[in-house]
Every structure is written in structure tokens, then in C-alpha cells.
Specification:
The complex is a heterotetramer, with two copies of chain A and two copies of chain B.
Chain A (H helix, E strand, L loop, with lengths): L1 E6 L5 H9 L6 E8 L3 E2 L2 E2 L2 E6 L1 H18 L4 E7 L1 E3 L4 E9 L2 H18 L2 E7 L2 E4 L4 H8 L2
Parallel strand pairs in A: 1-6
Antiparallel strand pairs in A: 2-8, 3-4, 5-7, 5-9, 6-8, 9-10
Chain B lengths: L1 E5 L1 H7 L3 E4 L7 H9 L3 H6 L7 E4 L2 E2 L11 E5 L6
Parallel strand pairs in B: 1-5
Antiparallel strand pairs in B: 1-2, 3-4, 3-5
The chains are: A alpha+beta, B alpha+beta.
Chain lengths: 148, 83, 148, 83
């Protein structure tokens, strides 16, 4: 079972956890939350705008979930990604995986984040006191995705 | 015809969100990129082989030799930076 | 900065996340929650009692946090472990790690869980319809801890 | 004197939470275990070399050759199962 949402609204991890916890076969829940930092590559960030490619986004996220569920024994997967304008300390993304034992939950969660970082069509534009600029992709993200 | 979409930095650089183009003679992503670079200026620069860009065909990540046919949606964008 | 608590009371991951999110240098938060399952090794579990060795528990958890903070670039670590009687779907443990980038947060979180599973003095006793029994340690937990 | 503590299954098996014993002649964890096994019965059985148990000295995980001195707190327990 999986939950995939792309939204401008914020999310609450306790609410998402509650959905997963209701299944008494779940013994392990791993989650990752990405947050807007106030500094990136040395410049102060006052806000961040997330653009995406709507027709492709849900498909890309569904592919990532499907791949994780094929590789590991997962009972539930949640992916929520926000779009629009965000401020420092705002939540950007949640990936949550639930399984019987922790090894599967950890591996699937990290795999999904690594794949999301290179495969899901989102782009960040940062606003700083000296103007706005698109965030450059990090080579370390490609390397992280290639581990799997 | 192909439905071409541009996103993020490339959308701004080209000052264009989308356009319709004929399927290139080679009927591949590579052929389409050659035609776009032939426009010169920002097109030749931003889509140069030394630059980082990605192509999706019908909402799936594509390679340089991915085939194209009429009606395909082709999106061209910078490497993604979500998450 | 780290938070370590051993308690009978439940915890709320949103509250713990809120403490960590207030630091705008934090870009990545990984968390793990362990839950009571209603089935373990084939027998139905009606409740679980967690015993510990109080004089050693906080020291063991502090050692695990210290080791993680030595190995990875971590901005905040939270470890909460419950003791006493729990029911299926109840939360047992929370390990949460916050860092600038996700690689450190994931590695530190999984490391801490693997070490906690073999180094922190907690013991589970399961109550089932056919009686109660102490849970056996899993060889896979030793193997997981030896990876690091 | 050593302050010996037993936990979990071993506490139940020995029907004992704690006791005080003299420091063994060898002044090591191994020497203490030999003395405890010499009690026979559940002691010899549960602390046998073929069984899984752990020892902590002064709240730190110990090894078989960890030295012991008067005043030490020695805890003997099954492999831990928290988390």
C-alpha cells in the first residue's frame, strides 16, 4: 500500500505515521524529511520556489515506490513532496517506509530518496538578498543513486 | 508533430514554456537536439554537449537514442534538484 | 546537541521533529521508530514488557550518540526508548538524526539503531495466549552491528 | 566485594536480582563465571560456554578477560533485545 502526494500544503509526520502504525504487522518505520536551509553554497536563502512537471511527477514517484517495493519487503510507503514557495525550516519532502524489520525499512527509504533526487522532475530556485538563482544539481546525488 | 516542453532554468533561458515541432528526420532525441542547437544563441549554448540537461519522452526519462514519433510529449530540462 | 530519554510514557515524533527543525542549518532529518508487532516468530503477542538496567542504560545510549557524532556530521540526535508494558502497535523506540545533508543523517540513524540493538541493556518479554517468554536475540542484529 | 546484578531471563532463572561476592582469585570476569558455574544446576546450565550471555562491569560491556576489583558492579544478562 502506498501514499503519493504532491502538494503546496505542509504535512505532519505524526499523521502519516498514524496511518502506518494501525497495521500491527509493522515493526519498523523509517522516515526522511528534507527541510529548507537558510544557507546553501554559502549564500543566505530567504525563500525557495519549487517548480515541477506535473504530468511526469506522479508517474516518476510511482515508479520509485514500485521499484522499492520490488526490491524490499515493505508494508507501506509514503511520499509527499511540496511545490510552490517555501521558507527556511519549511518541510520539503517526506519519504516514509514501513516494514516488519528495520533493514528493509532503512534500505528502501534511503533508496527512494536517492532516486527521487535524480529521477523526479522537481527544480529548486533560491531567493537570496543578491537575487534569485536555480539550484545546481549535485554530482554526489548521481553517485548516491548509482549505488543501488 | 511533437509537443515540446521546457522547465526551470531552460524555460527561462529560452523564454518559452512549450512549442510544437515536426518529428526530426532521425526520429530520435539526438536528432531533435541537433535541430534545436541549430537555432544558435542560447539554444546552442544551453543544449551543448558540455552542458547538463535531461530529456523525458512521454513523462519517462529518455536517452539520446530514444525514438520519437508524432504525438510524443518531449520535455527538456536541467538535472532535477528536488527532495 | 542530543536528547536521550528512557521513559514509560509514549512520545510524539512531531514534537521531537519540531525541536530539531528550529535550527535552519538542518536540511535532513532521518528517523526510525520501532513498534510492537502482534506476531513474533509465529505466536500472537498480546503485550510486551520491557525491562532495562537503569544505571547502564543512559550511559550506553550516550556512548552510542557520542560514537555517531564522532563518525558523521550530525547537528542533533534524539534517542527515546520506552520501558514497562506495551501493546501491539505501541511505539518502543525513536532514533532521530538531523544534519545538513541526507547521507550523514541516514548513516548515523541506522548505525545508532544497529548499536542500540546489541549494546543497550533492554530486554523484551512477550505475553501470548500460551504464556509469556523472553524474546531471543537475533543473530542478524549482531551481524548488522558488525557492519560498522 | 563485588556487587553482582542479574537481569531478564537470568534473573528469573536464578530467582535472584543481586548478590555480593568476593573478588575471585583470578580477579577477572572469567574467574567469576567459573565460580558461579561451580554452583551447578541452573547456574552451570545458564552460564555454560555454549549459552549466550553478556557481562557488564561498572555499566560498560565487558569481555571475558576484563579485570575485576573490589567495589565493581558486575551485571550478568542475556543478549539485549531492545529497540
Amino acid at each position: 500500500m502506498s501514499t503519493i502526494r504532491v502538494q503546496t500544503a505542509d504535512f505532519n509526520i505524526e499523521d502519516e505515521l498514524a496511518l502506518v502504525r494501525s497495521n500491527p504487522s509493522v515493526g519498523a518505520v523509517t522516515s526522511f524529511i528534507g527541510l529548507v536551509r537558510d544557507i546553501n553554497d554559502g549564500s543566505g536563502v530567504t525563500s525557495l520556489t519549487l517548480e515541477h512537471y506535473p504530468a511526469m511527477t506522479e508517474r516518476a514517484l510511482a515508479n520509485i515506490v514500485h521499484e522499492a517495493e520490488t526490491r524490499w519487503r515493505i508494508l507501506h510507503t509514503t511520499v509527499i513532496h511540496r511545490v510552490g514557495e517555501l521558507k527556511p525550516t519549511d518541510q520539503i519532502v517526506l519519504v516514509l517506509t514501513a516494514s516488519a524489520h528495520r533493514g528493509d525499512a532503512f534500505a528502501a527509504c534511503e533508496f527512494m530518496m536517492d532516486y527521487l533526487k535524480t529521477q523526479a522532475p522537481f527544480w529548486k530556485k533560491e531567493q537570496t538578498p543578491s537575487g534569485s538563482h536555480w539550484v545546481d544539481a549535485r554530482g554526489s546525488d548521481d553517485a548516491a543513486a548509482e549505488r543501488w | 508533430m511533437l509537443n515540446i516542453l521546457y522547465f526551470a532554468r531552460l524555460r527561462e533561458t529560452f523564454a518559452m514554456e512549450k512549442e510544437s515541432l515536426n518529428v526530426p528526420a532521425t526520429a530520435t532525441v539526438a536528432g531533435l537536439l541537433i535541430e534545436l542547437r541549430a537555432r544558435g544563441g542560447v539554444w546552442a549554448d544551453a543544449l551543448g554537449v558540455d552542458k547538463r540537461w535531461r530529456v523525458a519522452v512521454n513523462q519517462n526519462m529518455a536517452e539520446i537514442d530514444t525514438p520519437l514519433k508524432s504525438g510524443d510529449e518531449v520535455a527538456i530540462f536541467p538535472p532535477v534538484t528536488g527532495g
